[in-house]
Amino acid sequence: MPKGIFDAEGFFAALDDQRETRELTWKQVADDSGVSASTLTRMAQGKRPDVDSLAALLKWSGLSADDYIVDADESESHSPSPVATIAAQFRRDKTLPPEGKKAIEATLKAMYQHFSATRSQ
Amino acid sequence: MSGLRRGFKAEANDHALRLRRELSLKPHEPLCPWSLATHLAVPIVPLSGVRRHEPDGVKYLTSQGKDLFSAVTIFVGKYGRRRIIFHNDRHAKTRQAANLAHELAHAILCHPPTPPFIPDLVSEEEAKWLGPTLLVPNEAALHVVEMGMITKDAATVYGVSSPLMQMRINVSGARIRVQRRRS
Fold first, then answer.
1. Cβ(B138)–Cβ(B20) under 8 Å?
2. Contacts of A102 in chain B (CB under 8 A)
3. Residue B87: strand pairing partners
4. How far, in Å, CA of A75 to CA of B52, rounded?
5. CA nearest to A89, candidates B54, B126, B32, B36
6. Taking CB atoms and an 8 Å cutoff, what residues of chain A touch B18?
7. What are the strands, taking DSSP E only, across A2-116?
8. How many CB atoms lie within 10 A of CB A28?
C-alpha cells in the first residue's frame, strides 16, 4: 500500500488561490492566521508545516487536509508546469546588451532543464 | 524608494527581526544569507556550478558579462512555485550577499514568478528594500552607531558593502536617534 504524505506545495497553491480571491497580501495571510512568513515560504518549497501552523491555515482557509494527502510515489513523479518553464525573476544592474541577454537566456534555459529534471527524478 | 505601500518598511524590519529570532540571533547581530536560505529551504546554486550545462553562457556571464547578471530565481515543481536561486559567484562576497538577500526577500514575501526580463515593479521595490533590511535591520544600524564603529568596519562585520551599510545607517535614522539619546 503506497504511503500517503501531505502535499505542502499543493496546499500552498490552494492557499494562494484563496489569497488572490480575497485580495490579500501574504503578510495579511500571515497576520490573520498567525503563521510566520518563513513557514509559508518553506511550505512553498515543499516543506510540511508544523501541526499548529497547519491547523491555523486550515482554519483560516476552510480547506481540508485530506484533499492534500497524496501517494509518496505520486508526489515525486510530477513534471514541472509549462508556466514554470518561462517564469523567473531577474536582477539587472543596467540595460542588457544583446549578447548578455542571449547568454542569460541560454544559461537560464540550461539551469531550468537540468534542475527541473533533477527534481523530478 | 518610492512606491512602497504604507507600513511596508516597518513590516520589512519585523521580518528581519523575526527571522533572527528563528535563527537564535539577537536583533542587532549579522545574518548570513546562505544560512537564511537553508532556514527557508531555498537552494542556492552558484553560476560556476552549472558551467558544464551551458559552458558558453556561463563563461560570458562570469567574465566580460560579469556585471550583467547578479542572481535569478527559477521556479520548478508541480505547481511552479518551488524556488531555486542561482547567483553569480564571480562577484565580491559582499555583493553576493546583497544579491542573495534580494532574492530571498522575494521568497519571504512569496512574490510570484514573472516572465524573464519583465519584472513586476512593485515586487522589485519591495525586494530592494527588504533585502538590505534583512542584512542590516534598524537595530543593527543603531548598534553600529552606538558603538562608534566606522562604516567600513561595520560593513566588514555584517558582510555587506560600505555603501549598503551607509545607506542602512542613513535610512534607519540611527545617528539622529543616538544623538537624541546622548543630548
1. no
2. 57
3. B46, B71
4. 29
5. B126
6. 36-38
7. 4-6, 69-71, 88-90
8. 12
Q: Which of B15, B47, B78 sits opposite A9 (nearest CB)?
A: B78
Among A16, A84, A107, beta carbon nearest to B54 = A107
How far apart, in whole angstroms, are the C-alpha atoms of residue B6 and residue B87? 31
How many CB atoms within 10 Å of residue B90? 18
Grid cell for residue B91: 562577484
Say whether B48 sits in a helix, a strand or coil.
helix
Bridge partners, B82 (sequence order): B76
> What's the pLDDT tens digit per position in B112-150?
888 777 778 899 999 999 999 999 999 999 999 999 999
The answer to whether the beta carbons of residues B158 and B43 sit under 8 Å apart is no
Say if the ipTM goes beyond 0.95: no
Pairing between strand A69-71 and A88-90? unpaired
Strands B44-46 and B82-87: parallel
Write down the pTM of the prediction. Answer: 0.89
